[in-house]
Amino acid sequence: MAPGNWKRRQFLQSAALASLAASWPSVVFAERKFQPIADKGFKPDVEIELVARRETVSLKPGPATRVFRYHATLRKGPPSTLVPMPGYLGPTLNFVQGQKVRIIFHNQLPEPTIAHWHGLHVPQVMDGHPMYAIAQGQQYIYEYEIRNPAGTNWYHSHTHEMTATQVYQGLAGLLTITDEQEQKLALPGGEYDLPIVIQDRNFTADNQLQYLQRGMHERMVGFLGDTIVVNGQIKPVIPVKTRAYRLRFFNGSNSRIYKLGWKDGTPLTVIGTDGTLLEKPETYPYIMLAPAERVECWVDFSGREPGTDLMLYSLEFKGAVPRMGGGRRGGGGMRRHGMPQGAVFPVVKFHIAEKVSESPGLPENLTPFHRLTEKDVSDPAREIPIALSMRRMSPQLNGLSFEMLKVVDAERIPVNTIQKIRIYHDGHGMRGGRGGPGGARGGRGGMGMTMPHPIHLHGEQFQILSRIMRDQNTSDYDTVKKGFINSGRKDTVLVMPGEEVTILKPFNDYTGLYLYHCHNLEHEDMGMMRNFLVS
Ligand code: C2O
Ligand code: CU
């Protein structure tokens, strides 16, 4: 075992946790009711055995590929709860709002792991915080009620410093929720409701997954593969009929950002974003989809000629290359690998296979939506900063790196409040010398790098209040700005270089540690993650 792994394992041992617990305010550990056995009082509507294990799958002609994979067995609940996905993806978990769900998670991997339900509003002990990672052979029992509204979420590994490698090797799957409101809409269902999970990978000559070469550029940019994998398949062709579909796009890549658009410029109709439907359908010329983000589209193939193909692209965009704080592009001497961020390439091909005459109409209204405003903020005098920086080659939040159980004052949040949170690049948009709570120093022209960061907050979904470009040079921004979906509820927001995004986020119901981090998984594992302590 590599020394790094050994250290990590040591950390995960209960003895280490116990000594940390001793130095930690009781509020967190009162919450930390670790349950090695199921709670007898919990009456699940759905019970699933979920195993993380090694498998070999056939992804390319030739030798099979060794992957990590979630495998599930339904013990109780409607058969539609589990839908297998091809390739290395875990099965899609389909839940209904109000259901009580028990997931018995087994680790059969030769390393620690823990599963997180990205987008779900669940108690801290059910959230898959890395402090709960279990060793090989152990199990973790999740029990929670589905409180989220209808939407597309996902689940993935959240293991300390190993999230990137474990997700890369396959530990991810979709998780959908339906509710009464959504069922009334009669959106395209069954074979007309399709997940489009987009990831990128590199393969060795013998078809094995190849991860980063440890160069400086790779560490900063994250992993960018040269092979696009959709729904666990390389160069997939999706046969469709001449009618409307609900396509659930999900970016499951470690670091790659997609600018999704049809080659012929046909606009995209968006009906949902991270985890919820929109109030009304909206039209976009293209969609920016950062790691962990989801977007649901209404795609109507009516009027297309049977036998023809339609290619969805990732279109070219700029502003994704790390840039020195002074505004110069730091391109010189950096070795590229895979397809660069912002390159143009095909993502998935739809083949018009069959002509049908019936197609449902797009509903005018989707779901009622209460827009939060500044008036809803619990403490108007308070604004929580999330300053993004890339100093000394280390990506940080508020000048701090991840600490498993510690918070600073700015990270303490009273439960059942709505907070205003400003996410900005340290060195861009610093107003009046306001620094982060960790003492991060701003100022233009510093040595910090700016690059895009998809920022994710655990717990309840937030709303985007404003999005401001603070950089003088906005020409790069012009290549992306029409593709952001700022309405509806989100749990991940892409913050482009020079951009400042203010969000309003409720912290309701549950107390404890809730993570916030960059969902560029390489950044996350390098420490671009912190906790909020809700109490
Ligand atoms: Cu998708 Cu903290 O994770
Ligand atoms: Cu980042």
Q: How does this structure look, described?
A:
With 535 residues, this protein is mainly beta. It has three domains: 3-184, Immunoglobulin-like; 190-354, Cupredoxins -  blue copper proteins (Immunoglobulin-like, Sandwich); 374-534, Cupredoxins -  blue copper proteins (Immunoglobulin-like), CATH 2.60.40.420. 9% of the residues lie in helices and 39% in strands. The strands form seven sheets. Strands 10, 11, 12, 13, 15, 17, 18 and 20 form an eight-stranded mixed sheet that branches. A five-stranded mixed sheet has the order 3-4-9-8-6. The longest helix has 10 residues, at 3-12. The protein is globular and about 60 Å long. The two termini are 39 Å apart. It binds CU-O-CU linkage (C2O) and copper (II) ion. It holds the Pfam family Cu-oxidase_3. It comes from Nitrosomonas halophila. It catalyses: 4 Cu(+) + O2 + 4 H(+) = 4 Cu(2+) + 2 H2O. Keywords: Metal-binding, Oxidoreductase, Signal. Monomer.
Distance between the termini: 39 Å
Taken as a percent bin, the fraction of beta residues is 35-45%
Structural class: mainly beta
* Apparent shape: globular
* Global mean pLDDT: 87
- What percent of residues adopt helix (DSSP H or I)? under 10%
**CATH homology-level superfamily of the largest domain:** Cupredoxins -  blue copper proteins
Integer tally of domains = 3
Bound molecules: CU-O-CU linkage, copper (II) ion
Q: Please give the count of helices.
A: 7
- Uncertain regions spanning at least 5 consecutive residues: 1-33, 325-336, 428-447
Describe the main β-sheet briefly: 8 strands, mixed
Domain Plastocyanin-like: 88-181, 450-534
GO molecular function: copper ion binding; oxidoreductase activity
Subunit structure: Monomer.
Keywords: Metal-binding, Oxidoreductase, Signal
